[in-house]
């Protein structure tokens, strides 16, 4: 088991309990970023992910103690 901290930015907060911005998650070793997004039901809304402030693909494997940031698709005009 690994423990990570997930930070959901912008409107992605709606996928966390009570709209909080972050939470700790216990996950099996070998869990990938995309699996976390799917578990939180946010996969289709995530634009970019970073681990410890470094942009990573959704296929990146998480390790114990990392900080995972998930960012939404940005819209503007």
Structure write-up:
The chain has one domain: Ubiquitin-like (UB roll). The chain has 77 residues and is mainly β. The chain is built from one helix and five strands; from the N terminus they run E-E-H-E-E-E. It is 9% helix and 36% strand. The chain is globular and about 35 Å long. The model has no long low-confidence stretch (mean pLDDT 94). Strand 3 and strand 4 form a beta hairpin. The relative contact order is 0.30. The protein starts with a strand and ends in a 5-residue tail after the last strand. The chain has a five-stranded mixed beta sheet, with no helix packed on it.
Task: List the main descriptive attributes of the protein structure presented here.
77 residues, mainly beta, Ubiquitin-like (UB roll), 1 helix, 36% strand
* DSSP helix fraction: under 10%
Number of strand elements: 5
**Quick one: overall form?**
globular
| Mean pLDDT across every amino acid position | 94
Under CATH, the topology can be stated as Ubiquitin-like (UB roll)
Q: Strand fraction band?
A: 35-45%
Output the number of helix runs.
Answer: 1
Terminal CA distance reads: 43 Å
The CATH superfamily bears the name: Beta-grasp domain
CATH architecture: Roll
In the CATH scheme, the class would be Alpha Beta
In this structure, how is the largest beta sheet organized?
5 strands, mixed
Helix and strand content put the structural class at mainly beta
Low-confidence stretches: none
How many domain modules? 1
- Compressed to H and E, one letter per element, the order equals EEHEEE
- Alpha carbon gyration radius: 12 Å
**Biggest sheet strand line-up:** 2-1-5-3-4
């Amino acid at each position: 088991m690994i423990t990570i901290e997930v930070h959901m930015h912008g409107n992605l907060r709606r996928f966390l309990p009570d709209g909080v911005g972050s939470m700790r998650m216990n996950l099996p070793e070998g869990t990938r970023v995309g699996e976390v997004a799917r578990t939180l039901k946010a996969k289709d809304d995530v634009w970019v992910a970073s681990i410890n402030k470094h942009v990573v693909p959704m296929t990146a494997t998480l390790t114990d103690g990392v900080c995972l940031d998930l960012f939404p698709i940005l819209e503007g005009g």
